[in-house]
Amino acid sequence: MDTFSWKKIDQLDPEDIRDSRFQLHQAIQNVAAIGRKFLPHSDGDENAVLTWVPGLKRMAGKWVVGDKSFRSSISFDSFSIFLVDEKVFTISQFKLEGKTHSQLMIWLEEQIGKLGLDARNLTMNLPYGLPEYDTQSGEPFHLANPRAAGELGKYYHNAYITLREIKQKMKKSGEINIWPHHFDIALDVIIKDTGDSETDTKISFGMSPGDQHYQNPYFYVNCWPHADTQKLDKLSNNAIWVSEDWTGAVLHSKNLFEGPSQKKILDLFYHEASSQLIETLTK
User: What is the rounded distance in angstroms from the CA atom of residue 51 to the CA atom of residue 61?
Assistant: First the structure.
């Protein structure tokens, strides 16, 4: 199968997907923390962002340099943390199932120490709060349904390849980032560049595995500045406009299972929502 092809998502118990999200969201903080600690400080926490590696089906952090260049990544399929070199040779691997966060940190500090860097206090002082998870209080990592973690990985994979296509089609240079705070994957597209990121007109295409707004995975398009979405045309496949905490559109994951082609449903959603938002923002 081609590296950049769509992977059909199976419909599982939403509770199993949520459980996997909770476990993986906690685990990726250790991946993100390496770039945050060893790269220069960035006000927007950009050095802690992750990226999807479609060929390996892993979520990887930034490259850092010790005795050699390396980066950390997490596999949803094997529920493991990897340290790899620039040739993607595995330096070391840590299986998370049944292990505690403290055991993971001891391993990570030891391995990074062998690479010539001091990894003490690696995850201290996160610039954001996280939901309370059992692993934070000493409970071991445990996937109640490992298959659900693999399905969650398909959401990231499919979002990544779709955002990559949008980026190429729109001929934009933005990065497709996974943000460790909210665990979402997104591509920002500048519509009007003012030279100041605070005042740029932009839209963002993304996917969230679930959050305080919606418990299950969903795809979204949002915009800045805010737009009056109540005046926009109805979207296909039961996608909805939102206008409270932010303005844009949402396609719930359950709606992917209502047609013969999941990819076509998502492509149409991104196209319909972004086209209307761009027209509104550029009037």
Answer: 7
